[in-house]
Design goal:
Layout (H helix, E strand, L loop, with lengths): L19 E4 H4 L1 E4 L8 E2 L5 E4 L5 E2 L2 E2 L3 E3 L4 E3 L4 E4 L7 E3 L4 E3 L3 E5 L2 H12 L4 H4 L9 H5 L2 E4 L2 H38 L20 E4 L4 E5 L14 E4 L18 E3 L1 H7 L8 E5 L8 E4 L5 E3 L3 E6 L4 H11 L15 H4 L3 E4 L2 H38 L3
Parallel strand pairs: 4-11, 16-20
Antiparallel strand pairs: 1-13, 2-12, 3-7, 4-7, 5-6, 8-11, 9-10, 9-12, 14-22, 15-21, 16-17, 18-19, 18-21
Helix pairs in contact: 2-5, 5-9, 7-9
């Protein structure tokens, strides 16, 4: 541990030397971009890859999008690419030799410089140059004169390596999560019957045509209640849920997520009938994508008038929950200033239902997938928080 101006709060064992303050341009060659004439842009991958700005980078890497036959300024494979126009400070790497436009600059730097530039973006280093400008940008002088602190090369390599490892782990978890989400999307299409009455993919041991029926035949819709703001805020009684209580990654409403509670006297006074047992809850007003959440038996509760509940009867709640996901019920919203769903229309939506055993088999697989996706999401959050903490404490 040393003075914060000379050494970071967290460093590898064996390093005690003070870090040296210098300018970015003194330790890294910087090349400002120059855009080719737009008439030379192409979509031919055999031409030169053009990097114009943030749109040409994804997950910290250049992703070819536009090509050009004209060479202006170039960046070599392995160079760092810094966005110099809105959004200023985004940083990536290129795995190709590329032509760079005026929206970016190329920097010849190691992994330590790459991670340092990431941190500078995170802490808002570049905003002092672009604040107040009509068009957010930074110039060559500001980049070259950017003040940084550097350790000796060996320590740079150690810091860069561990942060690069964190980036790799985050990327792997993000890709795994995307794969699982794509798998789930495919299964929602293939494991539920279409108009033929048969699913494209099915568990062994199940056969026969699925029953065609209306959504209203397999469950009951319940609307919410208008609950005056001046009567909200109770800390005991029956849970009262709003749309904001649905912003939870685990797809399940829990008592602790309720905005407020409603006392028994208020329920009696207004003749409200609380919702019990297993239900699917969804927003019915104003949302472009209507959120759905499962709610199993955890005591009675009430909903506000922007929400609706569906309680299945003689059907598996998890299966019906995924039927809701597959239906994309937002397509059934009434068009208006504030789009909304109408229970009478939802009741008439045609769905297909297999035997209860097949419902449970399909639902169990989908639930397992959801749990795995949530697990990867949780791991991702932990990794990102750890990476953020390392960026904060391993640099001056």
């Amino acid at each position: 541990m040393k003075d914060e101006k000379k050494a970071p709060k967290l460093r590898f064992k064996g390093f005690t030397d003070d870090w040296e303050q210098c300018k970015l341009g003194d330790v890294a060659k910087i090349t400002m971009g120059q855009s080719p004439n737009s008439k030379n842009y192409t979509d031919n991958p055999k031409d030169h890859i053009l990097v114009q700005g943030n749109a040409d980078m994804k997950d910290g890497q250049v992703h070819p999008r536009i090509w050009t036959t004209e060479i202006t300024k170039i960046a070599d494979k392995g160079d760092l690419i810094l966005s110099v126009r809105a959004p200023v400070g985004d940083i990536g790497k290129t795995s190709y030799d590329v032509v760079i436009g005026r929206g970016v600059a190329a920097i010849k730097g190691n992994e330590f410089i790459f991670q340092l530039l990431k941190r500078m973006k995170t802490v808002g280093y570049w905003t002092k140059y672009s604040t107040g400008s009509t068009f957010e940008s930074i110039n060559s002088l500001e980049i070259n004169n950017a003040v940084i602190n550097l350790p000796k090369e060996h320590e740079q390599n150690k810091v860069g390596k561990i942060l690069s490892y964190m980036d790799h782990a985050i990327t792997l978890h993000e890709e795994k999560k995307r794969q699982l989400e794509r798998l789930k999307s495919a299964l929602l299409k293939k494991m539920f019957a279409d108009k033929s009455g048969y699913p494209a993919v099915r568990f062994e041991g199940f056969g026969g045509k699925w029953d065609q029926c209306k959504l209203g035949n397999v469950g009951t819709f319940r609307g919410g209640f208008g609950f005056p703001e001046n009567e909200q805020g109770n800390i005991d009684g029956i849970a009262f849920y709003k749309v904001s209580d649905m912003n939870d990654s685990c797809n399940t409403l829990t008592m602790r997520k309720a905005s407020n509670y409603v006392t028994s006297s208020q329920i009696s006074k207004n003749k409200w009938k609380p919702i019990l047992n297993q239900n699917i809850i969804f927003a019915k007003v104003g949302a472009a994508v209507y959120l759905e959440r499962k709610r199993k038996a955890m005591g009675p509760f009430l909903l506000d008038n922007n929400m609706m509940a569906f309680q299945p009867k003689d059907a598996d709640i998890d299966y019906i929950y995924y039927v809701f996901q597959r239906l994309r019920i937002s397509k059934h919203a009434q068009v208006g200033t504030l789009p909304s769903l109408n229970a009478s229309e939802l009741r008439n939506i045609t769905i297909y239902i297999p035997s209860l055993n097949e419902q449970k088999a399909v639902a169990d697989l989908m639930v397992s997938l959801d749990h795995t996706i949530i697990l990867y999401d949780f791991k991702l959050e932990l990794l990102k928080k750890l990476k953020s903490s390392l960026l904060q404490h391993m640099f001056i």
